[in-house]
From TrEMBL:
This is Rhodanese. PROSITE patterns: RHODANESE_3 (PS50206). It holds the Pfam family Rhodanese. Residues 17-126, 157-261 form the Rhodanese domain. The lineage of its organism: Archaea, Methanobacteriati, Methanobacteriota, Stenosarchaea group, Halobacteria.
Length: 265
């Protein structure tokens, strides 16, 4: 896997003393304080970088609000960020996507989660000393961003794009984009190790669904959380043509987009 996208617990352990490596814990504050965290990690809870009022696209919090969070956490634009949660990385992947969208060049997902880290590495309940920064965001342009909207998705439906729905079976059967394949985002995780499956296994698994690196891929779910994990995994595997439908099915239905319903044979 590409270490510029996903890093192993051993990689993180070897770089904890690097002052330019900032570890971000996106779990709830009670977990961070009460259960413990990776040494030196700062707490930026999931709800703090998600805004349901649509001040920006989808549930993105807005560049200034996100920059304020990073400033308070003592993070600078040149730092390497490694994010983790305790839910196989799905909430941390949303942080990765958000940071990338607002122009942070080096942000990575911890392979596994807090439980995976805790098996072999030290944890602490001590809060780190934080020296606030003045973080200046540099949001991606519409052309640079992987995020797409309703009209772009409509256009992609006319092409040979693979639409990937990462939701549960009942959600998929209730309504889905035409021709979409259902891919449970959790299938890429090894239940025993809590980490991603080996690269060859991942590529074979994705190929079973027609999700291959030579195809145009469009990801969606309901509110763009679950697809964040799939997006990061595909980037780590070297997929280049991956679009992220930030509005997802919530926006699609609000705009009376065409859907299919029912079980798939």
């Amino acid at each position: 896997m590409d270490e510029s996208v996903v890093v192993t617990p051993d990689w993180l352990a070897a770089h904890l003393e690097d002052p330019q490596v900032c570890v971000v814990d996106v779990r709830d504050p009670w977990e961070y304080d009460g259960i413990g965290h990776v040494p030196g990690a700062v707490s930026i809870p999931f709800d703090s970088y998600r805004d349901e009022t649509d001040v920006d696209r989808g549930t993105l919090p807005g560049a200034d609000a996100f920059a304020e969070l990073l400033s308070e956490a003592g993070i600078a634009p040149a730092d390497t960020i490694v994010a983790y949660d305790d839910t196989h990385g799905v909430f941390a992947a949303r942080f990765v996507l958000t940071a990338l969208e607002y122009g942070h060049d080096d942000v990575r997902l911890l392979d596994g989660d807090y439980s995976a880290w805790n098996r072999d590495h030290e944890t602490t309940s001590d809060a780190p000393d934080i020296e606030p920064t003045t973080y200046d965001p540099d949001p991606l342009s519409r052309e640079e961003s992987p995020l797409v909207g309703f009209e772009a998705v409509e256009a992609a439906l006319e092409r040979d794009a693979v639409f990937v729905d990462t939701r549960e079976v009942d959600e998929f059967e209730e309504a889905r984009l035409p021709g979409a394949v259902r891919f449970d985002w959790r299938e890429v995780v090894d239940d025993e190790t809590r980490r991603l499956k080996p690269r060859d296994d991942l590529e074979a698994l994705l190929a079973e669904y027609g999700i291959t690196s030579d195809r145009e891929i469009v990801l969606y779910c309901n509110t763009a959380r679950r697809i964040s994990h799939t997006y990061v995994v595909l980037r780590a595997l070297g997929y280049e043509d991956v679009a992220f439908y930030e509005g997802s099915l919530t926006e699609w239905l609000a705009n009376d987009g065409e859907v299919e319903r029912g079980a798939v044979d």
